[in-house]
Specification:
Layout: H1 11-23, H2 38-56, H3 67-87, H4 95-109, H5 124-150, H6 152-155
Helix pairs in contact: 2-3, 2-4
Amino acid sequence: MEVPGCRWPQLPVLLLWVNGLMTLGFSGVCQQINVCNESLMVEKLPACGRTFEEMMKKVDSKKWCNLTEFIMYYDNFTQCTEREANNASCFWPNPLAEGFITGIHKQFFSNCTSEKVHWEDPPDEILITLILIPVLLTCTMITLVVWCSKRSDILV
């Protein structure tokens, strides 16, 4: 006669088997594994760059740092690189696509450095006013609280 306690070691194996069925597509759906074809992607991405370059020729080079002047062209370029990466069964962005996009950025936008804002202190008159107002208000409120707490007839 079999002892019921002996089936417990088989439970993890059963659970792994059920988990395997569920993750492998128990519903009958077969998963395809696509391998990234990097050489195809590297071959196709320059076409996106050439198209972007042709579009950027329409924009005055002095306006290359103003994104509103060429946002549609850049959007088309981005969509093109994403489409070509997906056609090559590669995720996007990936290191190869990022390297290509960085090259395009260096070609067109290397002179578009953002100017850092140089912060300065306000004039002394304004600074003193901005400091004294909260200090005087705080002293006034403390004085008012102490004065009211000493007058017990107001609290009743």
